[in-house]
Amino acid sequence: xxxxxTDRERTKRPGSVTRTPGAGHRRVAPLELAEWLQQKLPAVRxxxxxxxxxxxxxRSDPWDRIIDEFTxxxxxFLPPLLGPLRGEVRPIWDRCAELFGATAAQRGLAAGEVIxxxxxxxxxxxxxxxxxxxxxxxxxxxxxxxxxxxxxxDRAVTHGSVGHTDALFFELxxxxxxxxxxxxxxxxxxxxxxLGVIRAEFEAVVRVLVTAGxxxxxxx
Length: 220
Hints:
Helices cover 69% and strands 0% of the residues. By secondary structure, the protein is mainly α. The protein has one domain (30-219). The N and C termini lie far apart (49 Å). Residues 9-23 and 212-220 have low confidence and may be disordered.
């Protein structure tokens, strides 16, 4: 199974909202949208994991627990992807999505099915934007930030598909070498190890962002 825990060289706007009087050209700022997303993470995460489980694709122990870990981590990437360190976060996001795709292959999913699972994340975020928009819908959203969020999920879909394809290639290669099949428990443990490395790297980047924000607050 390919390793995604190390870096690799691979190269609607929601419906109309009511404006606050005097708001003028005020738009929801990127950090305001990121803060809104941060508040929505538990609900989006829970709904996404439930939707994947309810589909019944590739369900078995230990993969169900792995899916819960994936949804928890992938959703956590969304707010930083709108912030000043998105350039640092994006490569880690790509690798996590590739690992998600590779894991889907091990779960027995087809390429279209892993894409569908990742598209559910987009659906849930858009639904929340309509249901409970940032700042109560009193300030219009910036189309640029919505497109940026949409592109981030597009990247996850693309890299998830890449990871799925890579995993199938390695599986065929290993079959050609007449190697003994790896038990699902051992594969899941390998995925969990790679997820741990990705999580640690992501948290280190986010920690830099939090520290910088605290220093900026003290300076003012």
